[in-house]
Amino acid sequence: MPVQKLTDAGVLTLHCPEGRSHSEVFDTLMRGLYVDVMANGRLAYRVRYRLHGKQRVFTLGDARLLTVEEARAAARTTLRRVLIGDDPRSEVLPEQGPTLAAFFLEQYLPYVKSYKRSWSTDETMLRQHLIPAFGERAMGSVIPPDVARLVETMRGRGYAAGTCNRALVLLRYGYTLALRWNIEGVEQNPAKELKGLKEDNRIERFLTPDQTQHLLVAVRKSQNPLLASIVAFLIYTGARKREVLDARWSDIDVSRKLWRIPKTKSGKVRHVPLSMGALQLLAALRAEHPPLDGLVFANPCTGRPFVSIFHSWDTARQRAGLPELRLHDLRHSFASFLVNAGRSLYEVQELLGHADIRTTSRYAHLSRERLFEAVEAVPLIKG
């Protein structure tokens, strides 16, 4: 049982030992407080206590959102409740309604699964942000300042404005349904009046060939044995992160040099041509890592698709000197390589799977040198 003085910086460097589903690192300054480090990359603060002779655990929240001092304060409050015989895990008062976790997991998710293709995105947002922040709270006890603090905390932790806004939208819609369904204890929507953060969707980063090489060197040094292959495959194909992480060998047709993506953002099946580099990568990957459950990039700790690769990716991009680079920027870089090589926007549109050419037109400005070469085709006017 590892024990150490927890610090904000130290907590973010913790990782789950290979072959284990999770590990626990206890704090030296607060009895019972520990970080639960899971194989999927999630970090959660929990406090262990005994009540009526039985050992129990109470989850305090996401360790990427709470500071160590906040976790210690929450643990101290929890243990004080235990001292007077109150179980922190006990049911909330009926007049406050169900816990937020109970409502969203037992009522909201089954409902949206019936019609929403992207319900898994909601599930991820709940698991990573909303439930760690409010999961144990009664729905009726959450007020607008609580939601505002969550958004501020996420922003302070480096999450993009779009991610913060999606958390806000999900919470707002969940409470709208709770009010519509007359859920007991829910009398207001704490997210209704809060405005979303301003998003600048025009920010796009494109790797230069030199930056690409620096990045590939950095990812090869990662403790995640599959990160280098995942990043290289993203660059080779221009696919979305989730498409790559969920890729299956049964959808790879080596003879036809095609990768079939059954679930795309548009809801349509897409076929991605595979370059020689992508095919060589897949051949090496299959030789080095025996397929698990048919997955191309299975998490070796779980045998399932990676839920998140943020920690290993963040470490690698910092090492490469590219701290602002997002995984999605590899898709932009794929497009920029094509445009600068003289490929048409219609070809880029097809390869990226854009339904509208206007989405692809953002890359029209990339190759200035080619435009200068093009105007030289106009003959000199003798006058």
From TrEMBL:
Gene3D superfamilies registered for this protein in UniProt: 1.10.150.130, Integrase, DNA-binding domain (3.30.160.390), Intergrase catalytic core (1.10.443.10)
Keyword DNA-binding: yes
Superkingdom: Bacteria
Domain Tyr recombinase per the UniProt entry, residue ranges: 202-376
InterPro entries: DNA_brk_join_enz, Integrase-like_cat_sf, Integrase_catalytic, Integrase_DNA-bd_sf, Integrase_DNA_bind_dom, Integrase_recombinase_N, Phage_Integrase
Keyword DNA-binding: yes
Keywords: DNA integration, DNA recombination, DNA-binding
UniProt similarity note: Belongs to the 'phage' integrase family.
Name this protein carries in UniProt: Site-specific integrase
Lineage of source species: Bacteria, Pseudomonadati, Pseudomonadota, Gammaproteobacteria, Oceanospirillales
